[in-house]
Amino acid sequence: MIQFDLCLCQCLLILLGFYFLYFISCELSFITEPCHVTVLPNDPALLDCQAHGQPPVTIKWFKNGAKLAESQHFQFLSNGSLFIPKTTHTKEESDEGVYQCLSQNKYGAILSQRSRLTIASISEFVLLPVPVVATEGSVARFSCSVSSSPTASITWECPFTVLMVTFSKLSVFRITVLPNGVLQIHNVQQEDSGQYGCVATNIGSRLKSRTATLTVNKVFKIPRIIAGPQNTTVSLHQTAVLECVATGNPRPIISWSRADSKPIDVYKAKVLGNGNLVITDVSSKHSGVYVCRATTPGTRNHSTAAANVTVLVPPTIVEKPESQTRPRAGTARFMCRAEGIPEPRISWLKNGEEVHLNGRIKMYNRYSQIL
After folding, report:
1. What pairing do the DSSP bridges indicate for beta strands 212-217 and 132-135?
2. Nearest residue to 123 via CA among 42, 211, 202
3. pTM, 2 dp
4. How far apart are the C-alpha atoms of 218 and 137, rounded to whole Å?
5. For the chain, what is the HEC assignment?
6. For residue range 304-346, what is the model confidence (pLDDT) as tens digits?
7. Shortest CA distance to 337 belongs to which of 300, 365, 302, 305?
8. Contact call for residues 210 and 127 (beta carbons, < 8 A)
9. Could you tell me if 34 and 63 are in contact, meaning their C-beta atoms sit under 8 angstroms apart?
10. How far apart are alpha carbons 117 and 227 in whole angstroms?
11. What is the predicted pLDDT for the residue at 66?
12. What percentage of the chain carries pLDDT values higher than 90?
């Protein structure tokens, strides 16, 4: 009798093992998900999507939340990927947008990560250099900004000569070009007078601005911050740029501090040029109010400006929902809790489609439970 029970128990364990392996093989999972893609106008684009699960597995594509129909323009490849032979980017019609693929079999569906398709372009300048009057020994500042995809690099000419490369009249130690395209000329001299223009370039195009005149005067002035730091919001591990440009004669000394008296992170922060604070690989501890102070050497004459840095922390699911088996008309409770800055908003999907709350389905906020 004992031997029979032992054999029966072993048989049940083997059956359970086969069931578990079958269940695992039925579950869907992505082999490849679409990534962000940047292409030139009229070039082809390929968005990869491959999934594994119990056949048959079907792949559907969505653009900006709307389902795509297969056509000559949107071609669905046999492996699940989306191919666009010739991308379109006009005012009336554009292939730019956010794409996702939905993988589905008879056991359920999964939705891929968002993939942004960007078609390289440069629009007109949104910020052009304007004439500047500066005093000897102070700082001259020119701004230049353009709307582009992907982000354009900015170079400067004075005139018709690329600054920082072959420009012979200025010492490179007096010139700073910030990542956002701002040009600063420190310790301005009379020979710096002239016409300054910027050039925006990305993989799609090249655009040259009109020029602006720099006039240099000999006038004594107390410290004055002409371009102080601006409130800025940056994503985790990105770079925060806090500009601080001050005029005065003699040239003011620029220093930085935090309003909460905490020390500035010397490992991640550095001064670029003559007073601009650049913080790389930011984390939540870098959030706070930063104060720029311009002081005349040997005096108490000073001017200050402050700005707040907010570091965005992407949402992280700290409590995940678990698969459940419930009898018909029973109650299922799924838990989901996330953290991030700002506080994440949680929504629920069933088979890739958003769940709408009703009398049977309810969601409770603190831990975002759905019943």
Report:
1. parallel
2. 202
3. 0.55
4. 9
5. CHHHHHHHHHHHHHHHHHHHHHHHHHCCEEEECCCCEEECCCCCEEECCEEECCCCCEEEEEECCEECCCCCCCEECCCCCEEECCCCECCCCECCEEEEEEEEECCEEEECCCEEEEECEEEEEEECCCCEEEECCCCEEECCEEEEECCCEEEEECCCCECCCCCCCCCHHHEEECCCCCEEECCCCHHHCEEEEEEEECCCCEEECCCEEEEEECCCCCCEEEECCCCEEEECCCCEEECCEEECCCCCEEEEEECCCCCCCCCCEEEECCCEEEECCCCHHHCEEEEEEEECCCCCCEEEEEEEEEEEEEEEEEECCCCCCCCCCCCCCECCEEEEECCCCCCCEECCEECCCCCCCCEECCCCEEC
6. 999 999 999 889 889 888 888 888 877 888 888 898 888 888 8
7. 365
8. no
9. no
10. 35
11. 93
12. 50
Contact assessment for residue 135 and residue 249, using Cβ atoms and an 8 Å cutoff? yes
3-state SS record for 185-198: ECCCCHHHCEEEEE
Closest-CA residue to 288 (of 321, 257, 248): 257
Q: What is the per-residue pLDDT across 38-81, written as a single tens digit (0 to 9) for each?
A: 888 888 999 999 999 999 999 999 999 999 999 999 999 999 99
Go through the chain and tell me how many residues it has: 371
Residues 6 or more apart whose Cβ sits within 8 Å of residue 348: 334, 336, 354, 355, 363, 370
What is the Cα Rg of the chain in Å? 30
Please tell me which residue, 93 or 132, carries the higher pLDDT value.
132
pLDDT at site 370? 59
Give the chain's domains with CATH numbers: 26-119 (2.60.40.10), 122-219 (2.60.40.10), 220-312 (2.60.40.10), 320-371 (no CATH)
Q: The tokens of 298 are what? A: 């040997």
The answer on pLDDT for 19 being more than 80 is no
* Cα–Cα distance measured from residue 369 to residue 154, given in angstroms and rounded to the nearest whole number: 49
Instruction: Give the Å distances, CA to CA, from 195 to 52, 156, 179.
Output: 61, 11, 22
